Amino acid sequence: MAVGLAGSAASVAYRPAYADRGSTALLSDTTLEPGLVLLNAANLTPAFRVAQEAMEKLARSVREDPSFQNRDRFQEMSEAVRAQLAAFVGAPADGIALLRNCSEANNLIAHGLALSAGDEVIVFDQNHQSNRLSWQARATREGIVVRDLPTPIDAQSEADIIAPIAAAITPRTRVIAVSEISNRSGLEAPVRKLAEFAEAHDIWLHIDGAQGFGWRPLDLQALGCTSYSASAHKWMLGPIEAGFLYVQPNALERVASPIQSVNYWLSHGATPQGARRFEALGQRDDARLAGIAATIARIEEIGLQVIEQEVRALTDYLRMRLGELPEVRVGEPGSPGLFGPIVRAYFDTPRPVMAAQRMWDAKRIALTPGAGSLRFSPHAYNTRAEIDLAVGELAEAIRA
What we know:
- The chain is an alpha/beta fold.
- It is built from 14 helices and 13 strands.
- The chain has helices at 25-29, 49-64, 68-71, 73-89, 102-112, 133-142, 158-168, 191-200, 220-223, 264-267, 288-302, 304-322, 352-363, 384-399, and strands at 37-38, 96-99, 120-124, 145-149, 173-179, 204-208, 227-231, 243-247, 329-330, 343-346, 365-366, 368-370, 373-376.
- The strands form 3 sheets. The protein has a 7-stranded mixed sheet, sandwiched between helices.
- The longest helix has 19 residues, at 304-322.
């Protein structure tokens, strides 16, 4: 049953229903240390307490009894989690590979997709390194061509985001690889429209979903991208070193696994079906499977729509409060409606690193400093009171 929240996601006057208690209900569910103002969900979040406890219990069992007999249960568990995750993201189970994180999944596509010298890959310059430098490394080694486009942060419409990609394609373009939401600016790619464009031109569309997954509903089949990567340790509030790669089942044969190691199915005289063949990664911490299962179960109890509503509302409120500081330029020049829950505050003095450290030292406010800016990424465990505190401390730091 979903936990009800007051207010509208479109209203900056929205106040979380639990703010008068000093924390949201979600905060009480997580491992976050009391008194820590964490506005850095784009990097790393706490875990749901039930997930952390499930992982710790299972990990302790394995270290106390590492026998094959004790660990055989993980194969059945991995299939149960695969099915659970597939339903959670709207994808067929055979298209889901349970990996360690988004970076691993991005590299698997970048280095495993069948390409030839002269084939072209289009990326944005704000792609995460694992979805940008991995392609460039392959270009150096194999002679593919990477077209590294400036991210259109001044976009006023979805068409403005697609336009530079459309202008860059040639008959040799084989791949478009972009972030669903930029971890630097928060610009959100219109994935559904990009998928239609890519399909019309017979181009593979790979989406790095690190910043889009876990805080809002996802239907990968409806989204239409050829492949999609995500991590559990950010917005999902799940385990570290737990993520997945989705590949459309009819496209799986175009990707070879660049990693070869112990494979459960082959060692048991069977053939891995679908994306399972990408999971031959050697010894793993299989307790993470319990963490994924518990995390999805808790999210479904709360309701992803509820979490999305609160994340969007808190982001709106953050933008409004930062906009009250005359020394600060809020966000990018593009339309705010094209950006996800990542907000940059640009200012001249003092240096952002100094301001971030001062905010940490004074009130234990955690965020990410960047070039001439601070990056804020609030989650549903944050409150308006925490945003008020952070903006007030930023004003003190700038004016000190």
